[in-house]
Every structure is written in structure tokens, then in C-alpha cells.
Prior knowledge:
Helix content: 40-55%
Number of strands: 8
Number of helices: 8
Order of helices and strands: HHHHHHHEEEEEEHEE
Low-confidence stretches: 205-218
Strand order of the largest sheet: 3-2-1-6-7-8
Oligomer: single chain
Largest sheet: 6 strands, mixed
Radius of gyration: 19 Å
Amino acid sequence: xxxxxxxAAPDVEQVRRDARAALDAVTSVTRALxxxxxxxxxxxxGWSRSHVLAHVTAIGEAxxxxxxxxxxxxxxxxxxxxxxxxxxxxxxxxxxxxxEHVSALESLADxxxxxxxxxxxxxxxxxxTYRDGTxxxxxxxxxxxxxxxxxxxxxxLDLDTWPRALGLHLLDxxxxxxxxxxxxxxxxxxxxxxxxxxGLRLAxxxxxxxxxxxPVGTDPGFDARDRVVVRGRxxxxxxxxxxxxxxxxxxxxxxxxxxxxxxxxxxxxPYSPPR
Length: 275
């Protein structure tokens, strides 16, 4: 039975288009880099901008490979060579010049366009090894990665480039990083959300689904009164949960008293099954 308090999954075609727009934006800002900027630090500790670009290309190629092999009824590991292959690929890719990065990103865009199934195709439901999911899950993973790392590049693409659907998706996907449920109150939005290791739900009164604008019911098994309440803009709350620096740090309160933001755990593994 469908949970009426759960958000709808992101629309596949909207995700595909936005992922391509994000990749195009990354390619555009990369063209404007010089050698010094390419070698300069990104927003990720220990990684240069070149490392971030190498990772963007590598994860895109990995998700394209998942889709390509799924179309042939085959299952392959996420990265060729596993975790060691992933790391080796990033280190090798980080030695590219600006022109080489641009070429790799342009080739990746063509490969992904060819790899994704057409609108309405049953190919979206084909199984892949990424989190024991489907081709649609691989697409959403790529969308999540390219949008997040576009900001990590620290080259002019900021949190305001994240669409609303991505922010809500991050609250859903990354709730597993929390050890307990929190209530989220988003700025200028009336609906309170419950973010937890089990995903994203409505937290209180009957209201409107944040994804579909369809009336939904309450979650009768959840009492929000003794929970930490995290308040802020959607992009800032999503950035905090993603381990990134928000434009404005969200506030946290418990029982009306200011509290520290909850601790967050590790990023979900690409090898673990979905919830």
C-alpha cells in the first residue's frame, strides 16, 4: 500500500533534462578556467578543481555503463575495478588539462544521451548493480552527483543552481545519515517535513505533498513534539545534510530551546541496497 505521507519519486524526464543542464553548466565554467584555477582548491578538502572534474566524469561514465549494460541484460559493478579502480581513475583524470577536461565532459554528454532509455521506455526499470536498483536509480544518482559537484567545483555555480526537486530528493536520500528523525521547517513553506533514516515524510497536519501539490494525510505514528526541529531554506538544509557549507546555517531547536544541529553519518554507499 502506498504511504500517503511519502513524497513522489522525481520525474525521470525532468531529472534527465536537469542533469544534462547541470553537465552543460559544468562544461561551460570549465572552459573559462586557466591552468592555475584548474589546479586550485575546490570546496572539497584535499581535492583540486581538477580532481572534482575527474570525479564528475568518472561517475557519469559509471552510470552510463550501468545503463548501457542493463540494456543488454547485463549487470556490472559500479566502477570498473571497484573502489580501487574509482580512486585510480580520479587520480589519473586529475592530471588532465583544461582542454582535456572539456573534451571528456563533452564526450560524456554524448554518451549519457545515448545511454538513457527513451521517454516511457520499460528500459528505465531494468536492473543495475548500483544499490541493487534500476536504470532510473542510476540516472537519479548521476543527477545528484553532477548537481552537488558543480557547486563543489567552486567556479561560479552556487547552491541557488539546485532546483527544488533536488533539495527535496536530498532530504529523502540523505536521511539515512541521521541517527534519529528530525522535523524540518522550510523558510516560507507551511508544510513541516519529517527527515529520517527511513526517508522523507510529512511531519504534521494534513497538507499538500511538497512534490505533487496533491493533498495527503498525516503520519499517525509520529510525534514531532520531542524532536529536533531544523529550520532554514531548502537549499541550506539540503546542503547541511549533504555535508556542504550552506549559504546560511540552518537553526535547530528542541522543545523551543536552541540546540546543536544533529550529527550526520557517512554518505550512503553506492554498493548498499536502497531502503
